Amino acid sequence: MTDQSAALAGASTAPAARLEPDAIGVAQDTVIGMASSAPAASIALTMPFLAAAVAYGSGPIIIITAIPMLIIANAYRRLNLWNANCGASFEWVGRAISPYLGFITGWLMIAAYIIATVSGVEVLGPSVLAVFGSNSTSTWANIGIGTGVGVIMLIIAVVGIKITARTQVGMAVVEYAILIGFAIVGLIAVINHHPGTVSFSSGWLSVSGIGGKGDAVAGFLIAVFMFTGWDGTVYVNEEVKHRRVNPGRAAMLAVGLLAIIYTLATVGLQGTVSPKNLSSNSDDILVYVANALGGGSWAKVMALALALSVIATTGTGIVLTARMVYGMASYRALPAFLSNVSRRYKTPVAASIVVGVLIIALTWVYLLATTVQNAFSDVVDVTGLLFAVFYILTAIATIVYYRRRVVGSVWNFIILGALPLGAAGFLVWMFVKSVMGEGASLNWSLIGVVAVGLVLMLYARFGAQSPFFQIRRESDPEQAVSSGRGRHA
Known about the structure:
Layout: H1 4-8, H2 26-37, H3 39-53, H4 58-82, H5 89-96, H6 99-119, H7 121-131, H8 139-159, H9 161-191, H10 216-227, H11 246-270, H12 275-280, H13 285-294, H14 296-329, H15 349-368, H16 370-381, H17 383-401, H18 403-406, H19 410-437, H20 440-463
């Protein structure tokens, strides 16, 4: 953020503290985006349901879903070339289309990341306990583990982006090595017809699955959820070297690498046990599969990968959400004190603490208040839809901002017009199918999240009188995209 942030927040005339520029590279940023998607945890939550939905045609479904995700990632890349700040889609949609729609986009980003982070509580406690050979289901043990992890990752988030990146890279190396290793072993077992495995067939290479019994639409819905979170690369863009270029590259790299990991792991592991056992052990499927492949000791190794995945996404959840909050607070769209940056650590300490404490508090509520667990589960289930909405809005903002280029050449028409529109259309289709197929409680959860955003927007506009709502709409003047403009120019 620029010194304008301090002025907007009513700070002194002294230069405002800033996030640390050029602190991390594109590789570290890519890992942050991948960690936000939590590969091991995502596979653990989706593999049994994806295999059942598409009759083992998981590979083609994941690969096809990666295409619109790559297109949306490219939309993020192009918009980041224009305006590189951690508010990202909040500011892009606000400046290109409407500040009111921009605020709602920012709110959906914050809500989606907080809910997605809290949802990891389902597997964190049991995974950590499994590493030490315990199968305890104690609520207080899960609360203790969740709270401890939350506090540690909050401290790391406050201390600085460099230690955050190093921590994420260290956990990622172990998590991905374990996941890919087991996937290869599982695929070999399936190909060699190991007892108890599902035989590989041509149906595995079809979106309709074995015998044409798969439901591709249901598969796409699950796969979209798996990919969500790669956009985390752009929320730390102010701290990345070559902040206009590298965060967008990291987003595309994250999507590509996630596609490889998801395809290899899902295809490699889905056939290692019978369909019945795959379904009946869906609560701890990765640990169960690892035990089937190598016994109890290897099951602990897989539990470690799963625990690291959730710990990593807890850390990125705090770091990324804090920067979204910081970006909005710099305009008084959220309380101004949340835009403060520590001169010592060069991080948004206030925003980080608020987000971290909120995540820990929601974890306690979820684990203790059994009467609200069903309602909270409904909110968790719409997380993928929240991501889909702000991905759609970002794609549309790309078309609107670069509209002069869209009609300038065939290439730009395809890259900046047709492809983003097609990707947005795919997500709209998924959104509609999901809403129509879900129960009323889930749809009311989605409406509730949006309604809270509308109330906050009205307060920001008329109560806090945020200057964000007076910003002028912008569009690309057909200058070289790499020249970049915006608040950081």
